[in-house]
Amino acid sequence: xxxxxxxxxxxxxxxxxxxxxxxxxxxxxxxxxxxxxxxxxxxxxxxxxxxxxxxxxxxxxxxxxxxxxxxxxxxxxxxxxxxxxxxxxxxxxxxxxxxxxxxxxxxxxxxxxxxxxxxxxxxxxxxxxxxxxxxxxxxxxxxxxxxxxxxxxxxxxxxxxxxxxxxxxxxxxxxxxxxxxxxxxxxxxxxxxxxxxxxxxxxxxxxxxxxxxxxxxxxxxxxxxxxxxxxxxxxxxxxxxxxxxxxxxxxxxxxxxxxxxxxxxxxxxxxxxxxxxxxxxxxxxxxxxxxxxxxxxxxxxxxxxxxxxxxxxxxxxxxxxxxxxxxxxxxxxxxxxxxxxxxxxxxxxxxxxxxxxxxxxxxxxxxxxxxxxxxxxxxxxxxxxxxxxxxxxxxxxxxxxxxxxxxxxxxxxxxxxxxxxxxxxxxxxxxxxxxxxxxxxxxxxxxxx
Length: 449
What we know:
Strand content: 5-15%
Structural class: alpha/beta
Largest sheet: 6 strands, mixed
C-alpha cells in the first residue's frame, strides 16, 4: 500500500509554529490522508485542530483587513515618532515648515503628542505666498490655539506679513503670470530660506512622502537637503501612503484643512489648485470619505490638483514649487548693468528730472529678476557703448505706480525714448539686439529732421 499524506496538514502545523494557532485557524483546511489500494482510492478526512468546525464563525475578511491596517498604522506612527525624536533631540534647532496639507497636520499632531510644540523644542514656520486660500491662514490660527503654539510666518522680502497690497505694489499682482519661476523664488524659496536662517535651523522637518510621485519616490526619513547649506532634512512620514495619512487623521480626529471637505486632496495657492475630481465629488467629511476615494489615494494622485495650468521655462509641466529642488537657493541676487555705459536712475525724482530736462535719452525700465531683462542685458549694454543719446536704467518693480504713469510700463523690460519736449515713446518690439535699439534711436532723428 502506498500512502500519500497531503501536505496541507504539514503546512498548517508549520504555520502554527511560526505564527501561532490563532493567526491561522481561519485559513487552515481539514487534514486528509489519501490511501491507494488495489481496489481503488479511499480518502479519509480527519478534523484538524486548525480546521474550522461547521459551527465556527466564518472568517471575517473585512475585520482582518481593518486589523491589519491598524497594525500597519501603529508601526508607522512609532517609526515617525522615532524619526521626530532624533530630529528634535539630536539637533539644536529643529524647524517644521508647515503647509497644513494632510501630511503636515499629521506631523503637527505627532509633535503635539510628543510635547515638542508646547515646550518649543520644535518650531513651526509658515510661508504666506499672498496667494493662499483664505481658509489656510484661518486654519493656521485654529491649530495654533488648539495645540498651544505660535508659528513664525514669513513672506516676500520687504513686505510686512499679511500686507497683500504692499506685495502687489512691490512685486506686482501678476508676477506669477509674468515669470512663474521668479514668483516661486520671491514668494516661496526666498522666504523659506530666510525663515530657516532666521530660526537657526539645523534640521528641517517636512511632510514629503514616496507616495507623492516619482520625483519623491526614493526619499528616506533622513537626508541632506539641497538647500540651506546642507542642513539635515527629516521626512518622518516618508514611507506613508496618503491613505495612511487619512487613516491617522480619522483615528485621532486630527484637525485638518477645511478644503478637504470641499474636494481638495492637497492645498496650495488658490490660483492654481483645483479639486480632484474637478466636480468635487470626492470629499473627506467628518473623518470619513464621501464618494470614490480612489482619485485621491492612487499613487502620485495627491498633488494632481496642484500647479494646474503652470509650466516651467522649458515648457515641461510644473510639479514642484521650487523649495525642494536642487539649486533652489540660487536666487537672482545681483543688479543688471552694474558696469559700463548704462547709467542708473536712483529715484523717481531723478527720473522726472530727466524726462523734463529738454534733452533726449533712452530709459530701460527693468526688474533684475526678470528673465527677459536678463536676456537683453548684454545687447543693451553693447548698444549703450555707441549710442547717440544718454542711456539709463530705472528699476521699476519697486516703483510700479510711477513707471506705469510716467514710463509706459506694464511689464518688464520697457524701453522708452525721451524726446526733447518731454514726451515718452515706448519701444514696441520684442527684438532686443544692439542694432534694434540703435535703429529705434535713429527713428527719432528722421522725425525731427
